[in-house]
Write a structure and sequence with these properties.
single chain, mainly alpha, rod-shaped
Length: about 170
């Protein structure tokens, strides 16, 4: 009986929900789903309606009215709740893990590279002249040394990075 009712009422429900959706502020599929749920509840409680088509039309209109009332009462958030500008705990944990992996890899670099990379990553934002002075090397050799160290760092991190980001 339920299968026959669903098969019989399906096209009518689609048409009625499409007609009412534009005035209710909801999607036709949402209205259809709500009415199917009402029908199942009705079948469980009272059995099938005597006039299924009439019942369906009334149910669609009732759901459309309910949707309109809900839409009128809803207010948008002042700010987006899932604001990407403020990182959540997951983002903070992932960023901290990436920073730890970077610092660990920097410590494993050969020669002067750990000191050079620490100076480049310093929150003090040192100039090339200041870095060269701290490391006791000429400012002109700092660029080639930095390039060599970054190459070593890239090779160290390559196995630890799941997917490389596009560079450009």
């Amino acid at each position: 009986m339920t299968h026959d009712l669903v098969t019989t009422l399906g096209p009518l429900l689609t048409a009625e929900a499409s007609a009412e959706a534009c005035f209710s502020g909801s999607e036709p599929g949402d209205l259809e789903q709500a009415v199917w749920l009402r029908l199942l509840e009705r079948l469980q409680a009272d059995g099938p309606p005597r006039d299924p088509q009439g019942w369906l039309r009334k149910a669609v209109r009732a759901e459309a009215r309910r949707s309109r009332r809900t839409t009128r009462r809803e207010r948008p958030y002042g700010t987006e709740p899932a604001d990407d500008l403020r990182p959540g705990p997951e983002q903070l944990a992932l960023t901290a893990a990436r920073h730890r992996a970077l610092r660990d890899a920097v410590r494993r670099l050969p020669g002067r590279c750990p000191r050079l990379m620490e100076a480049l990553l310093s929150p003090r934002d040192l100039t090339y002249r200041e870095i060269a002075g701290e490391l006791g090397i000429s400012q002109g050799s700092l660029g080639p040394e930095r390039s060599r160290c970054l190459g070593c760092l890239r090779r160290l991190l390559a196995p630890e990075v799941a997917a490389r980001e596009a560079r450009g």
